[in-house]
From TrEMBL:
NCBIfam families: GGDEF
EC numbers, comma separated: 2.7.7.65
Gene Ontology MF term list: diguanylate cyclase activity
Catalysed reaction equations from the record: 2 GTP = 3',3'-c-di-GMP + 2 diphosphate
Stretches assigned to the GGDEF domain: 189-322
One GO term describing the cellular component: plasma membrane
Record-linked Pfam families: GGDEF, PAS_4
Single GO BP term: negative regulation of bacterial-type flagellum-dependent cell motility
CDD domains per UniProt: GGDEF, PAS
Designated name of the protein: diguanylate cyclase
Coiled-coil region: none
Superkingdom assignment: Bacteria
InterPro entries: Diguanylate_Cyclase, GGDEF_dom, Nucleotide_cyclase, PAS, PAS-like_dom_sf, PAS_4, Rev_trsase/Diguanyl_cyclase
C-alpha cells in the first residue's frame, strides 16, 4: 500500500528529525535576539541540558563563558549580509566549553571546536534565525599541538648538547657569526672569544673510562655555566673543548672571567666510583680585531692562544696578540 503525499511528508520530517538528533555534530538555532530555539542531541549530550531546559533561554546567560562581543562580531554580519561565517580552534579553542571525554585524546581537558554559522531565512527571504554547527575536532587539534610540541623539542635538542646542556657547536657558531657581523657594522663595540679544553683528558678516559670522562666534562661545563652572564653563550666545541662568546666584553674583562673559571676548575673534586678526580683546563682569549675578515679568523686567534697555554705548561690563560712574539 503506497503512502499518500501527506503521509510521506510526515515520514520525511520524522527522518529529518531523527538525523538532526543523532548526527555527530552540534546544531544550535538562535533567533535574532540570541535566544535558543533548537538544541540537538549532540549539544544535549555534551552540555547535560535538554532542549526543553534551554529553549528561549538567552545564549550568553546560559553559557557565560562565551565571549559575547567576539561571537556577536562573528554572527552580526551573517544576519546583515546573509553570508556564512566560520571559527577555527587555532584562533579560539571552542565556543561551548564542553569537557573532552574521548579516550584517544584524553590529554585535552576541553573539546576543541570548529564551527560554521549560517543564516536561516523566512519565505520572504528575511534572515530570522542563525544556525551554528559545532564540529568536534579534538583529535586533529591534539595531534597538531603534540606534533608542534615535538618539533619544538627537537629544535631545542638540535641547539643543546645532551651531555653538558651547553649549546651545540652548530648553534654556537651561528651565534658567533651573527655577533661577528654585528661587530663589523659597529666597530666601536668589543666582544671576546674564549676557547678552553681539559688538560690531559685522554689520560682520564684511558685510566678511568669514558663514563668518568663524561662526568668530568659535565662538571667543567657546570663551572662555565655558573660564571657566565645571560648575554654570553657557551658551547661544547668538541669532545673536551669549550667555546664561550663574551658579548660586549673587553679582553681585560674576559681575562678576569677566564682566570676565575680556571681557578674554580682546578679546585674541583669530581667524585666518581668512590674516587676523587682532579683536572685542570687551559684557556685562550681573543678579542675581535678589525683585521679579522671572517669569523673563522676569530676562532683561529682564540685557538692559537689556547695552543700557547698548552705549550707553556697548561692550566694557564693566554691572550691572543696579533703582534709577532
Amino acid at each position: 500500500m503506497s503512502l499518500t503525499n501527506a503521509e510521506f511528508d510526515v515520514s520525511e520530517i520524522h527522518w529529518l528529525m531523527d538525523m538532526f538528533q543523532t548526527v555527530d555534530v552540534g546544531l544550535v538555532v538562535l533567533n535574532s535576539d540570541y535566544r535558543i530555539q533548537v538544541w540537538n542531541g549532540f549539544m544535549e549530550s555534551h552540555s547535560g541540558l535538554t532542549p526543553r531546559q534551554v529553549r528561549e533561554r538567552y545564549l550568553f546567560d546560559l553559557f557565560p563563558e562565551i565571549d559575547e562581543q567576539w561571537l556577536r562580531r562573528k554572527c552580526d554580519p551573517v544576519i546583515l549580509l546573509k553570508n556564512r561565517a566560520f571559527t577555527i580552534w587555532e584562533q579560539r579553542p571552542y565556543i561551548f566549553k564542553f569537557k573532552n571525554y574521548r579516550p584517544i585524546t584524553g590529554s585535552a581537558e576541553y573539546m576543541y571546536q570548529n564551527s560554521t554559522i549560517f543564516p536561516l531565512t523566512d519565505t520572504r527571504g528575511q534572515v530570522t534565525h542563525l544556525c551554528i554547527i559545532i564540529y568536534d575536532v579534538t583529535d586533529a587539534a591534539v595531534s597538531r599541538t603534540e606534533l608542534e610540541s615535538m618539533n619544538g623539542r627537537l629544535q631545542q635538542l638540535s641547539k643543546t648538547d645532551f651531555l653538558t646542556q651547553l649549546s651545540t657547536r652548530g648553534h654556537w657558531e651561528d651565534a658567533l657569526i651573527q655577533e661577528f657581523n654585528r661587530l663589523q657594522r659597529y666597530s666601536q663595540h668589543h666582544s671576546t672569544l674564549l676557547m678552553c679544553d681539559i688538560d690531559h683528558f685522554k689520560r682520564v678516559n684511558d685510566t678511568y673510562g669514558h663514563t668518568a670522562g663524561d662526568e668530568v666534562i659535565r662538571k667543567v661545563a657546570d663551572v662555565i655555566k655558573a660564571n657566565i652572564r645571560t648575554t654570553d653563550l657557551a658551547g661544547r666545541y668538541g669532545g673536551e673543548e669549550f667555546a664561550i662568546l663574551l658579548v660586549d666584553t673587553s679582553l681585560e674583562q674576559a681575562q678576569c672571567l677566564a682566570e676565575r673559571i680556571r681557578q674554580q676548575v682546578a679546585i674541583l673534586a669530581i667524585s666518581y666510583n668512590k674516587m676523587v678526580l682532579n683536572v685542570t683546563i687551559s684557556l685562550g682569549l681573543a678579542e675581535r680585531d678589525v683585521g679579522m675578515q671572517e669569523h673563522r679568523h676569530w676562532i683561529e686567534a682564540a685557538d692559537n692562544a689556547l695552543y700557547q697555554s698548552k705549550v707553556d705548561g697548561r692550566n694557564k690563560v693566554t691572550c691572543y696578540s696579533s703582534e709577532p712574539a
